[in-house]
Amino acid sequence: MLSLIKVPQVLTINQVPKVFQEDCIISGYRQPRSSAVDCIRSLFQLTNETLNIWTHFLPTWYFLWKLVTVVLMQTAWQDSLTWPLLVFLFSCCIYPLASSCAHTFSSMSTRARHICFFFDYGALSFYSLGSAVVYSAYVFPDKWTNGYFHQCYIPIAVFNAIISTTVACYSRLGFPFLQYNHDVTRRFPECQSPKFSKFLRVIAFAYPYLFDNIPLFYRVFLCAGEGCTDNETNMLHYKHVALAFLTGFLFATHLPERLAPGSFDYIGHSHQLFHVFAILGTHFQMQAVEQDMAIRRPWLTANSLPITFANSMGPALVCLVLNCIIIALFSLPLLSGPGGNHGKEQKKT
Ligand SMILES: [Zn+2]
């Protein structure tokens, strides 16, 4: 019985291969060749990943509950104005779920780690598309509604999401087959320049976020006079934007652990804070778009582009399929060889 609940010993940074090491996190590492069962057990053991997992696993259920509520309560399938909200809420379920799974199973092997985070990146870029779909439907200021930018907005957002997934996956190992194969020692950017890899990843996620928010930023920060949609939802939008910038700041700076390496290994390091503020930001974003939808429904129904499959679920489906293809292409060389060899690995997430 005791052996059933016995948890594996945690390791220090010098006991794990470089690919598993995190900046300024000194202890609390799981075994780099954990079994799937050990990974699941680690949810109940304090490691440096435990709170990373829970801070996205629990919110997955919250957003799933919201999605189910909308599907059941608002006769969503008959009311096409609700479809963008469904797409957005679905993306809000997918990204924390993919993230918590990635953090749970990333210690199974080097290859598993890369593949887990490819899915994490794909889910984040899908969330950016979900945001674009819902902004196009409910958040565009009156002034810009039906304009040329509005009509191009979702196709560009799909393109951006695909580029985002590609750049984020590229930032780990380079291009599949060209710069790495099953023998991952040939991999390109991270071993040569981990800072460049991190920079690529920040750009990969910041760029679609900034593009998606152009109509919102214009509406709440720049627009003056008629047609600015200056309603009571703007306060919720401000909260979401503030939290989004805080999230990006934490991801890019590795604060607070950079100031005191080893002091925040288990609780309070930047990645946990990044998760928590991302979820809080998404929560306010969800409240804001729901409120905009409710307040502006009559005006949108009369004046905005009609909501169809082609500007709501269609782009989401295209993005989902293309993201899966990209992830498969980046994962294929890792799956085609013999088992993962940590010893040859050079650098980290
Ligand atoms: Zn994470």
TrEMBL record:
<protein>
    <submittedName>
        <fullName>Progestin and adipoQ receptor family member Va</fullName>
    </submittedName>
</protein>
<dbReference type="Pfam" id="PF03006">
    <property type="entry name" value="HlyIII"/>
</dbReference>
<dbReference type="GO" id="GO:0038023">
    <property type="term" value="F:signaling receptor activity"/>
</dbReference>
<feature type="transmembrane region" description="Helical">
    <location>
        <begin position="316"/>
        <end position="335"/>
    </location>
</feature>
<feature type="transmembrane region" description="Helical">
    <location>
        <begin position="153"/>
        <end position="178"/>
    </location>
</feature>
<dbReference type="InterPro" id="IPR004254">
    <property type="entry name" value="AdipoR/HlyIII-related"/>
</dbReference>
<dbReference type="GO" id="GO:0016020">
    <property type="term" value="C:membrane"/>
</dbReference>
<feature type="transmembrane region" description="Helical">
    <location>
        <begin position="83"/>
        <end position="105"/>
    </location>
</feature>
<dbReference type="GO" id="GO:0046872">
    <property type="term" value="F:metal ion binding"/>
</dbReference>
<feature type="binding site">
    <location>
        <position position="275"/>
    </location>
    <ligand>
        <name>Zn(2+)</name>
    </ligand>
</feature>
<feature type="transmembrane region" description="Helical">
    <location>
        <begin position="60"/>
        <end position="77"/>
    </location>
</feature>
<comment type="similarity">
    <text>Belongs to the ADIPOR family.</text>
</comment>
<feature type="binding site">
    <location>
        <position position="271"/>
    </location>
    <ligand>
        <name>Zn(2+)</name>
    </ligand>
</feature>
<keyword id="KW-0472">Membrane</keyword>
<feature type="transmembrane region" description="Helical">
    <location>
        <begin position="117"/>
        <end position="141"/>
    </location>
</feature>
<keyword id="KW-1133">Transmembrane helix</keyword>
<keyword id="KW-0812">Transmembrane</keyword>
<feature type="binding site">
    <location>
        <position position="103"/>
    </location>
    <ligand>
        <name>Zn(2+)</name>
    </ligand>
</feature>
<keyword id="KW-0479">Metal-binding</keyword>
<keyword id="KW-0862">Zinc</keyword>
